[in-house]
Design brief:
- The structure is a single chain.
- This protein is an alpha+beta fold and 168 residues long.
- The chain folds into two domains: 95 residues, Acyl-CoA Binding Protein; 64 residues, PH-domain like.
- Helices cover 35% and strands 24% of the residues.
- A hairpin with a 5-residue loop joins strand 3 and strand 4.
- Helix 2 crosses helix 3.
- The protein is elongated.
- It comes from Sagittarius serpentarius.
Length: 168
């Protein structure tokens, strides 16, 4: 479970899983509890400034980073008494509720040349437009075959007797 915790934490910090500001603060507080223990063990939370708490795109402004770090310290205080293993499990459970968890998304072009995203998840394959809104879901039961060559992906659908083409 510890390795899984490290992987999902890396996915959050690398920006592969997106979270709201509130979710990010909650996750960072749990990560600090899991990695460092109780709040009252430290005279100062200055060490948090050196610890990577958020995705890199969040931490461009120093004043914003300082404010977020203070909020993480407050969040960390609320988790006092929770063991590292419990904090890791709480972190994992929180991450599993994030939008996009369990999905892999790839940039492709549709047959009209428009930039879209092709995603894979437990129910099948989905298409998201440029603004991130899911437009179509092809369920695994409806897909007869998936073919790939150097520059294209073809979904062969069972019931509609049609193929859907994407360019990589």
């Amino acid at each position: 479970r510890y390795q899984y915790y490290l992987q999902v934490k890396k996915d959050v910090l690398d920006g592969r899983l997106l979270s709201s500001l509130e979710q990010g603060i909650r996750l960072a507080g749990l990560a600090v509890q899991a990695d460092f223990g109780d709040y009252n063990q430290f005279e100062s939370h200055d060490f948090l400034r050196e610890y990577v708490l958020f995705p890199m795109e969040w931490t461009q402004d120093e004043a914003v980073l300082e404010d977020l770090t203070q909020k993480v310290a407050q969040e960390h205080r609320t988790h006092s008494g929770i063991t590292a293993a419990e904090a890791e499990l709480m972190y994992i459970n929180e991450v599993e509720r994030l939008d996009g968890f369990g999905q892999e998304i790839f940039p492709v072009k549709d047959n009209h040349g428009n930039d879209i995203h092709l995603g894979i998840f437990f129910m099948g394959i989905f298409i998201k437009n440029r603004i991130g809104r899911t437009t179509v879901i092809y369920r695994w039961n409806d897909i007869g075959n998936i073919a790939h060559n150097k520059s294209s992906i073809v979904l062969e659908l069972i019931n509609k007797e049609e193929n859907v083409l994407f360019h990589t």
